[in-house]
Design a protein that fits this description.
Length: about 425
């Protein structure tokens, strides 16, 4: 994760005049300070993923992540409030788009043509159209007939068929109810932010959390999730993650940084657990074509944004009183470029995650690709895979496959080797039987 600063601060960093602030564990933060005086001099104006591309998460608004670097200004919270309001607006649009796509995915097994119509690129484009007011979110859904009219009659027919499905209509009513609660909660949060009376503000935020908890229960309903395919589950879970973020915001607005940090920590773990469950539920190549690029984006962008958000909150909590006062008195802190940080990047014609998947698909098969996705989400699994490969390699006399070489191998290599030996081992077992 790389932060971009304004040209003046970037020049100061290059000359050694300024230094980027780090957490106690060495994680970089989006704030710089004077190397001599210690004065805080400015925030980052951009954020890049580990691959060097502009960060553009699917379900995490950068405005909220950036608000984590601003809410500490207790006497000058307007900037942080503005970021939160923009973030909530983005969340509303994102949830509306994410759940609207379930009207194409449907319940149960999803058709390939339907999945391609609302893949990662299309979803990012739909979200941008909503932000630009080209599409309207109504009752938590957008008019997909209008949004996808250029994709052909087959897609429009699929939308009509799903609309007539009784099982989907039951799901749709649950989603409409959940979105309604979410929308009312965000309205109450915005109203609370304008309250001068702290008691009223806290009461409104507590009521908003109650509504968000009810919405979260609907989106995370185990019965609803069990009835849907892996892509359908992913869409509903992404909506649930948005609710979790909003709950964290309510704590942050109350200056309950420990609670906000705990909520974000829980959310990061939940995203990993949920995506692993989605991978395990994947039953076909068509479903994998849909979830692989999307989960890769979530890993490389959304989880990075959440980590950055939590790092800033935890850093502020760890500051000694003298540093807090210095931070609060930094009136010269450059915030004029923050809007650039908050501006979502445009949707690229070629999504890198899709290109990566197509490349991996040429070199692997379904089981290996699923495992590669699991290894991405849960790197500790590599130890189990490497141990199995090492054992089988020794038995087969493959001296080049040493433990040291396996540590340097890509997830592609590890998964392919695992399945090479697994298929071979299973075949030998069958012959012996």
């Amino acid at each position: 994760m790389l932060f971009q600063f304004s040209p003046a601060i970037q020049a100061g960093l290059a000359a050694g005049k300024y230094v980027q602030v780090l957490t106690s564990s060495g994680a970089p933060l989006s704030i710089a300070r004077d190397a001599t005086t210690g004065q805080f001099v400015g925030h980052a104006v951009g954020l890049l993923s580990n691959s060097g591309l502009p960060l553009n998460p699917l379900a995490v608004p950068l405005q909220l992540a950036n608000a984590g670097t601003q809410m500490y200004q207790i006497h000058q919270m307007h900037q942080g409030f503005t970021a939160v309001q923009a973030g909530l607006q983005t969340l509303q649009a994102s949830v509306g788009v994410l759940q609207a796509t379930t009207a194409v995915i449907g319940v149960g097994v999803a058709a390939g043509v339907a999945l391609s119509a609302v893949n990662l690129w299309q979803t990012l484009k739909l979200r941008e159209d909503v932000k630009q007011l080209k599409l309207e979110v109504k009752d938590g859904f957008v008019d997909l007939r209008k949004a996808l009219k250029d994709q052909g009659s087959e897609i429009l027919l699929k939308i009509e068929q799903i609309a007539q499905d009784i099982k989907f209509e039951q799901h749709r009513q649950i989603l409409i109810r959940a979105y309604g609660r979410f929308l009312e909660a965000t309205k109450l949060i915005k109203a609370a932010m304008s309250c001068i009376d702290i008691a009223i503000r806290n009461a409104d935020l507590a009521n908003a959390r109650q509504m968000l908890g009810e919405a979260l229960a609907d989106y995370s309903n185990p019965h609803v999730l069990s009835e849907t395919s892996a892509p359908g589950q992913l869409r509903r879970l992404e909506c649930a993650w948005a609710i979790e973020q909003t709950i964290a915001v309510t704590y942050q607005l109350q200056n309950e940084s420990a609670a906000a940090s705990d909520r974000l920590s829980h959310l990061r773990k939940r995203v990993c657990q949920d995506t692993l469950a989605v991978v395990e539920a994947c039953e076909s190549e068509e479903e994998l074509d849909f979830i692989f690029p999307e989960i890769t984006r979530i890993h490389d962008h959304d989880l990075v944004a959440l980590e950055s958000w939590q790092n800033h909150i935890d850093w502020e909590r760890s500051l000694p009183e003298s540093e807090r006062k210095l931070l609060q008195s930094s009136n010269s802190l450059e915030l004029e470029s923050t809007a650039d940080f908050n501006t979502a990047t445009s949707v690229m014609e070629i999504v890198p995650e899709q290109t990566l998947y197509e490349d991996l698909k040429d070199k692997s098969h379904l089981s290996s690709l699923r495992d590669q996705l699991e290894l991405l989400i849960k790197p500790n699994l590599r130890q189990e895979y490497a141990a199995y490969i090492d054992k089988q390699a020794i038995a087969a006399g493959h001296k080049a496959l040493t433990s040291a070489n396996l540590q340097e191998a890509s997830n592609l290599t590890i998964a392919n080797l695992y399945w090479y030996f697994k298929v071979r081992d299973d075949s030998e077992q069958e012959l012996e039987d």
